Amino acid sequence: MFRWLRRLFGKGDDDIVALVLLLSTPRFLDRTPVLSAIERATGRRLGADELREEAASYYRLSLDGFELTLCSAPQPYIPDPEKFSEQFQELRLRDAVARHTGCILIDVWKAPPGMKREDAIPTMGKILAEFFDDTALSVYSRVSHRHNVVDEELGRLFQEGKADEAMATMTFGGISQADAEDPKMVAAIAEARRRWPEFVAAWQSTEDRGTFIVKAPFTDGVHTEHMWVTPTQIEESQITGILMNQPFQLPRPREGDEVTFATEGLTDWMMVQDDEVVGAFTEALVRRSQR
Questions:
Q1: Cα–Cα distances in angstroms (integers) from residue 54 to residues 67, 117, 137, in the given order
Q2: How many domains, in total, are found in the chain?
Q3: Which has the closest alpha carbon to 280: 201, 208, 198?
Q4: Together in a domain, 161 and 70
Q5: Positive or negative CA dihedral for 222, 226, 232, 236?
Q6: What is the distance between the alpha carbons of residues 122 and 137, in angstroms, rounded to a whole number?
Q7: Which domain holds residue 38?
Q8: Residue 82 and residue 203 in one domain
Q9: Using one digit for the tens of pLDDT, what is the confidence trace for 6-41?
């Protein structure tokens, strides 16, 4: 089984349709709670032939013509989680990947006639959400090749049958730790600062400021986190606003706090004009590191 898991976790086979839940503590899947979880998620009772236990913590599941596998592994999703996590710039994802020691996986390997295996993802997400608890760290999609941190928003989307939608984007407020020496990041920040007057001009010319946000670094002298702020006041030398993110390592400020920072320290900005996003110069680099 674990050889199959290692193949499934590899990046070489793009034909796999699966969701992987990373856990801080490995979990044994006993048949009774597994059956209860699936029945809660699907709202139906399963027949004896619809859930087959083929090995310890390894189940075959038949649902509406789809053939699925649900299993748990007492080992990390990748061989060296701590080293692998270094590629993630977003701090919560980096922590989730680095700390995980086990995983729960659900995949679909056969679809009924006239349907694709991807059509099972909403149901797969509902089932996986039943295993979200204090040990659940993040979810990895083998379809979108994206990680998302487990939180209330991800749980809500999975329970509503929107796992495919949730795993197509980042559902949580990201906290980035920029590499000050990365030439691409340096150039992106410089571009944001050079074009800052565009943001100010647009801000001053409208009363609808709900789509204006700026990013700035916050530090306690040891840790630095780049977070988004909804501005409430813009002056020549400083910006005041409401923090949109919950810091990962910093004790203060907290999400929802009013903050003030020097204009010269901003690292990005974003606004919507004529239904088009303008700015977000560093965002592409950050999101690329979250895949």
A1: 14, 22, 27
A2: 2
A3: 198
A4: yes
A5: positive
A6: 20
A7: 2-166
A8: no
A9: 444 444 455 889 999 999 999 999 999 999 999 999
